Amino acid sequence: MANDRLVSPSAVETADVVVVGSGFGGSVTAYRLAEGGRSVVVLERGKPYPPGSFARAPADMSRNFWDPSAGMHGLFDIWSFRGLEGVVSSGLGGGSLIYANVLLRKDERWFVHESPLPGGGYENWPLSRCDLDAHYDRVEDMLGATPYPYADTPKTVAMHEAAGRLGLPVWRPPLAVSFAPRPGAAPVPGAQIAEPSYGNLHGLPRSTCRMCGECDAGCNFGSKNTLDHTYLSAARHHGADIRTRCEVRGFAPRPGGGYEVRYVVHEPGREGRPTATGELPVHRIACRRLVLAAGTFGSTYLLLRNRAALRGISSALGTRFCGNGDLLGLLLHATGGDGSGPPGPRRLRSSTGTVITSAVRVGDELDEDGSSGRGFYVQDAGYPTFLDWLSETAQMPGSTRRALAFALHRLRARLGHDPQSNIGRQLSLLLGPAEFSDTSLPLLGMGRDVPDGRMSLRRGYLDIDWTVQTSLRYFERVRSVMRDLGEELGAEFRDNPLWWSHRVITVHPLGGAPMGRHPAEGVCDSFGEVFGLPGLYVLDGAALPGPVGANPSLTIAAFADRACDRILEQDPGAHSAAEVSAGMPADVPGKAPADLPPEAFVPPGMTVEEVPQPAPAGGERPTSLSFTEEMKGHAALDVDDPEQGRDLGRQRKQQLAFRITVTAHDVDRFVDDPAHPATVAGHADCDVLGGRLPVEHGWFNLFTRDDDPARRRMLYRLHLRAPGGSPLTLVGRKDIHDDPGADLWPDTTTLYVRLLAGHVQPDGDAGAAVLGAGVVTVRPADFVEQLTTFRATGPHPARALERFGRLFLGELWDVYGSRLRPPPEEPA
């Protein structure tokens, strides 16, 4: 929602391609296009995380979250919506920094076509497994896909035994982890990894996997083949300009083609210090192609926030959201030993190994093998060792009992009743058997949930309308299989605490800008290019029209790799900076207020000479009057009738509001001028326009007249600017006319609004493109507050208020007083 200040408006950088985000889609795109000779700039909002930089200490972890407004520039970006929580990352390498390394392909039969959805519509994938297989191969090779090599890890053995007894397919999936120092060598923990030919952008040594379970918290040894160690390092090797701490705030098409991107820089010196709205300078860069790869939340938010500048974008924007069926379950108190001895606690050692070592597949009705329902995977979900300590400490009754016993023993020793000085046994008893952590195993389910969620803006913030209800049968199947696995291990199945309120945690959000065969079905085509907006691409999870089912990172990367083939085929040559900027002139939207001509500040109905000027030295300055007005309602884009826009906006919960201060700089001139012109300052709030937009220049006319002597109008004209820099004009009118019934209140408090493209002057309304329309009103409580905001400043404040009041009430009397006037007397 930030509205930051533009810096150096004339200085616009250029590039062939700007990539927003450095996750699986962005990193692949940056590498492929840089390798193809394009000038590529990657804008990543987070900071780099070289080996050894991931937080582990409690003090560091408490600040390891992303919220620059609070001074936090950390790794984890946590979202909370109706029905679900979302966990994504912010850093160079995107989600690869905190994912569990699994590289599984989307099942061939799960590329569904016209699969019906509750409430209408359907899930349709406009590409197939065949379209992606060659690209899956490329990505697996680049990321070093290697099955988990250790078959004797306790949790791995347990998963394979339990799944085998249930007759479910289970295997050790390919992981993007280096277990050996070089390809083809035997796995060995802690060995130095050989550096690839393209080098490493961090310039630090990496070592092979130590099986410490810290994959999801960031690998401090560099064992994970994350995108910064692979694709991004290769992209930089081929000339890509990779910029961290650069957060994109807006973008818009340029008149001659291409796009202008606006971003702010979160300087390291600001970390730990809250950043106020408007505090950060805005930088600009122009490009022929713009690739949105900021993740499902980030890319969809940017599209929604800049929607007004994207004329003709599909109405499918914001649809087909899902969490890829993510569900966390817990197995506790496993028993049965290891199968070789008497029954007892079974050691699962969840903190040993990579986070995920095994995958169990449960069939889908689409498999045509007798399976029913929607298919899914269940995987073991390990964790760092420090969580073992936390979980044991949380077992309060046992911990308290052991602590009291230890204290009593030491007290007896100090009193001389126990001469034994070796206390190893007592310390062991104090720590306890640690059976809770040793016999517990989290499980992660993911699969084909129903992609019927809708993403939108609410008061400028991202909002998601999604619940588990339409996917409840799917989730119950996942829970049932988790419970069955637990029974085979003699363990208790427990839901994660959020499930008690039917909420889930997703680490795989998908959809929001889904691909489709045409604009009525999707936002972009099967190569990620947005319909109707050449050169704009969505190449991340937002483009997927439904769940992958398996871990989606590999599919996102393969999708981006396929799109890059098409881009390079369509435009085989590289471009110079001059060629990039040619045909893309900076226009009025790039001008700062100081660059605009004087007439841009003149209220309608006045000439430049009539604008009130400061009184000369020694002269009496005019008296000004101001008041503040707040109006609220609804609006929609792609309609030109205000009432239709109001109805559609209300249906879609798309609010429009503004709070403005109207100022008549010279009350005497304001009253005497038939146009009654004043200026306006303030802001508008509109979700479909991107949130809060300051009024750059605004004008108000009170009680103007037209050909109907019984009608008056109040006119509003607000020059706004979308987050991407596109100029907008809000024009509104209140119709003051004496119709049958009591209409004084609705006439004076109802504003009919149209939203126009560009900063439009009154004589240009007829030719301006209409972006949308709506209706806003003054509510009674806001009207009462408005009455308290009247201020007169100058030598004659009382007279100013009196003249304004006489004008206002007099005009209302002229319009509505006819009913109260006595009829004229009949002539005698």
UniProtKB/TrEMBL annotation:
All residue ranges annotated as the FAD dependent oxidoreductase domain in the record: 16-48
Domain Glucose-methanol-choline oxidoreductase C-terminal: 503-560
Keyword Transport annotated: no
Cytoplasm among keywords: no
Cofactor: FAD
EC number(s) reported in the record: 1.1.3.6, 5.3.3.1
Keywords associated with the record: Cholesterol metabolism, FAD, Flavoprotein, Isomerase, Lipid metabolism, Oxidoreductase, Steroid metabolism, Sterol metabolism
Functional pathway: Steroid metabolism; cholesterol degradation
Protein name as it appears in the record: Cholesterol oxidase
Lineage: Bacteria, Bacillati, Actinomycetota, Actinomycetes, Kitasatosporales
